[in-house]
Amino acid sequence: MTPPAPKGSLADAKDSKAEPAPPEGARAEPQSSPLAPPGEVLSTLRKDGTRRWIRPRPSEGRFLSGRRGVAYGLMAVFLTLPHVVIGGKPAILLDVVRRRFTLFGATFVSTDTLFLLLAALAVFLTVFLLTALFGRVWCGWACPQTVYMEFLFRPLDRLFEGSYQQQAKLDREGGGIRRVAKHVVIVAISVFLAHTFLAYFVGWSTLMGYLTTSPAEHPTAFAVMVSVSGAMAFNFGWFREQTCLVACPYGRLQSVLLDQASLVVGYDTGRGEPRGKAKKGRAVAVAERGDCIDCRACVTTCPTGIDIRDGLQLECIGCAQCIDACDAIMTRTGKPLGLVRYGARSELEGGTPSKILRPRVVIYALALLLVLGGLGGALLDRPSAKVKALRGIGAPFVTLPSGEISNQIRLKIHNQSDQSRSYTLSLITPSGAQLVAPENPIQIGAGELAEATLFVVLPRAAYAGTGELPCQLEVADGVDFERVVTLTLLGPSQ
Ligand code: SF4
Ligand code: SF4
Known about the structure:
This protein is α+β, with helices and mostly antiparallel strands. It is built from 16 helices and 16 strands. Strands 8, 9, 10, 12 and 14 form a 5-stranded antiparallel beta sheet that branches. It has a 4-stranded antiparallel beta sheet with strand order 13-11-15-16, with no helix packed on it. Helix 3 (113-134) runs antiparallel to helix 16 (359-380) and helix 7 (176-202) packs across helix 9.
């Protein structure tokens, strides 16, 4: 028989979540209206539907130090990448308008669908694998929303408005000039970040051109800039943690990607319960108490406003702030660290630790290896050019005044290499045919696509009997590309 789950376990998360006490410094909940929901539906929502602002208290500790280092490193990468040039090209340039995507020296075009498909698959499988192994490690450590919110915009809150209690006071009494000044800075930073973001799509030099000319000369780019800046200012200034709680699809997806053995931030219910303050006369006798002294330090530090003791919740972004907060309390009370810690759910709930190598982990890893292998092989095999030959539009052939038969061919050559190349065209078959090309060789710039119209002229007698002839056309750049394309020439059969 399964014993009843202790208070605070994953199993009773919903019940214990029904009436959470307001965190320190927060406004008291207003009186319930007849339409009020029976329990909490969202940590940022009061029962009367008004916003409950989350003003987390930062908790210094090993995880916050580590996340801070990672966050500032990622910010530095984001700000410097648009200036990095590899082999004469930007390190990353996602030219959506021209459908050309440059990634660390290699340029892909819209016809490179296989690479795009495999790369997208690899990204999805990596997310699946990382989530199965390490839970929401992406959310807590590397997602731009968390990185900028927790290590740029919340520090700005503290700089302009003071401690988390002072911020909560401003929420109750009105922000005044300090809050206005903070929002001005948030808008300025958002405009700067939006410009950097745009540089990934247009390139730094083009961006500088936009910045030094009138918006009337580039209205679309200006509109995109204003929209992205506005969206960032709205997100980081007002919407904030609600992006993680209600807008991000990954938060929803994680519920199906996690299992009992995935690494999550969790509360050791067996060790912590029954919780109680270390005072005489409390309901929980000192001898029976668990290690949790119900100080709520783990709650007041949570950037999404939840109580980790209620079990694993969709709102938990795995930031580990509650671990740092609780470890500080454990140090002060002389108890071992790790009442709140990284662990597998099965282990945190008192079960046996699960294996790392589980079916879903093995399947995700194998599928990822397969896709990465395919992507690597396709990249190594990628020719420096693509050639396509099509018959001309209109009449299948033309009889020239000389009596000869002319077939029109449309030739498309895409130079996928990093240098300008010269492509020479030569007819292999049929013998005796004359190739008429306005330009031969054809000069094509790096990454450029060119289209040429050619004519293959043959005596009328060559088509006698069948009315068609196989044709082989060779395209070579004299460096590393040589391709023979075949098509059928048509003519009169009599
Ligand atoms: S519960 Fe802990 S790990 Fe989860 S979001 Fe809150 S502070 Fe971060
Ligand atoms: S910080 Fe630790 S001791 Fe304090 S309430 Fe949270 S789990 Fe309990």
